[in-house]
Prior knowledge:
Bound molecules: benzoic acid
Strand content: 15-25%
Number of helices: 7
Structural class: alpha+beta
Order of helices and strands: EEHEHHEHEHEEHEHEE
Helix content: 25-40%
Strand order of the largest sheet: 5-4-3-6-7
CATH topology of the largest domain: Glutaredoxin
Distance between the termini: 43 Å
Shape: elongated
Number of domains: 2
Mean pLDDT: 97
Number of strands: 10
Radius of gyration: 19 Å
Amino acid sequence: MSLRIGDTAPNFTINTTKGEITLHDWAGDNWVFFFSHPADFTPVCTTEMGRTAQLAEEFAKRKTKALGLSTDTVKEHLAWIEDVNDTQNTTVNFPIVADAEHKIAQLYDMIHPSESSTATVRSVFIIDPNRKIRLTMTYPMSVGRNFDEIIRVIDALQAGDANKIATPADWLPGDNVIIPPSISNEDAKGIFPQGWDEVRPYLRLTNIDKS
Ligand code: BEZ
């Protein structure tokens, strides 16, 4: 069965471009952006690896560690990383799992046989410091992911955890947020002293940057 939001991210020990890692130990008290790509030396994947490397500071600001995966070997990954660095004008410093035996791909259901029986699709798992899966996303092989959205959803999850709020469509940091219906007006007075705009009784907007 597929992994779901709220599940504990299955632990594993595996060889990567930065040596052997055990997921839960390597993660420490960080968030993890764990993502698979179909294959080394392919065009879309090259841009995705480059973009992840370019965003290293943004991930670090959010206490988030990136971890890539494909069913290639460490030797192939290391040769490809040179190409990624050259062509995307960056330096890949995050580990890429070498899952040539498909052990982790199967554990995380990253191989979708209608696409390929050997290569992983573009899966994303955002894992929090309690090892819980907080987001899953699956993109086909032919479509590169939107990394601004990856950063945005980490921001939204972290803002939600810190402030007991939900975020509306297309939310970006600084925008108004939603007081969840599970919080009564009585309780909201204590939690959101800055007040809120009641558009409907079930749609209350506030701004956590003005509290
Ligand atoms: C790519 O990264 O360009 C790619 C990889 C596998 C299938 C299709 C595209």
